[in-house]
Write a structure and sequence with these properties.
This protein is of the alpha/beta class. It contains 3 helices and 9 strands; from the N terminus they run ββββαβαβαβββ. It is elongated.
Length: about 130
């Protein structure tokens, strides 16, 4: 005879408590299924108030783009989303290349769908999308 949960013969299932706080490495890997490295055509958008942001991944195209555009990204105080990254070492390397920029691992699928973006690296501002 099965007793309901909470009955002395069937105590509630309690998940284990994590002793250490979660780290950024626990968020990895981050995989954005709607985005991959590639060419982005410049286009005008109208999103007043949007904070400049850029999307990159753990790939050579993103690394070269980041190094080439770093001064502009810093000037814009752009926030970076690392849309595809598997390991903490790769994220650390991207942050070193983009020294002074904030870069957070995060899936960007929702953003990609809303803005009809299929590729990165890309800079998104209130007035445009460009590579």
């Amino acid at each position: 005879n099965v007793q309901p949960e909470g009955h002395p013969d069937n105590p509630p299932i309690v998940p284990p408590v994590r002793e250490a706080p979660y780290s950024e490495a626990d968020m990895l890997p981050v995989l954005s299924t709607h985005l991959r490295p590639g060419k982005v055509e410049r286009r005008v958008i109208n999103l007043p108030g949007l904070v400049p942001l850029f999307l990159i991944g753990d790939d050579n195209l993103s690394r070269r783009w980041l190094v080439t555009r770093i001064d502009e990204l810093r000037e814009l105080n752009a926030m970076g989303l690392v849309a595809n990254v598997r390991h903490m070492d790769a994220l650390t390397e991207l942050r070193q290349l983009g020294s002074g920029l904030t870069m957070t691992p995060a899936t960007a699928d929702d953003l990609a769908l809303r803005l009809a973006i299929q590729h990165y690296p890309v800079l998104i501002t209130a007035t445009g999308i460009e590579q």
